[in-house]
Predict the 3D structure of the following.
Amino acid sequence: ETGVTQTPRHLVMGMTNKKSLKCEQHLGHNAMYWYKQSAKKPLELMFVYNFKEQTENNSVPSRFSPECPNSSHLFLHLHTLQPEDSALYLCASSQDFRGTSGKSSYEQYFGPGTRLTVT
Amino acid sequence: GQQVMQIPQYQHVQEGEDFTTYCNSSTTLSNIQWYKQRPGGHPVFLIQLVKSGEVKKQKRLTFQFGEAKKNSSLHITATQTTDVGTYFCAGPTTDSWGKLQFGAGTQVVVTP
């Protein structure tokens, strides 16, 4: 499956480093998402973008900074992370949800994820 | 807040046996989705159920949406080693457009 790609696939960074995660979707979608998946925890939604506009920030610490320059690309900029931020970071995309009743949703297509380790 | 709960958390199955995993929402859902994540992989969309009481089949997998649209189940018959993975259900939240609330998943282990 190459509909949603993520780079890098693995990242090890120190707490003082700055790095960025990249996500690209080739499905013609207009909504994109960042999720965090830690061991033994449910998928945690971090950010939602719809038509390049951020529609959801799920109380994410400011050391995570998203950027969505267009509907096909999504970045997650990382700065001064903590060891507890080590996790699998997943990007997903879906059809846009502008004009819906707000109670429906489209299926989401996930990328392979970036396995992040903060030392 | 809205919660989506899945039981069991772990399911050990002998190859060839059947099993069912359940998903329960604290609120009525407009639809429910199921995803599968293989070990070391990422969640992959399996199916979406929309209608009350809807039943859909995908080969050995049978998905059902409850009459009250607050629960769902996934039944797998004649389990194979390829069924190994974590199965998540997810429903749209009521507070934000496009946002899915995922359950914690059922991790399925198949022994030959």
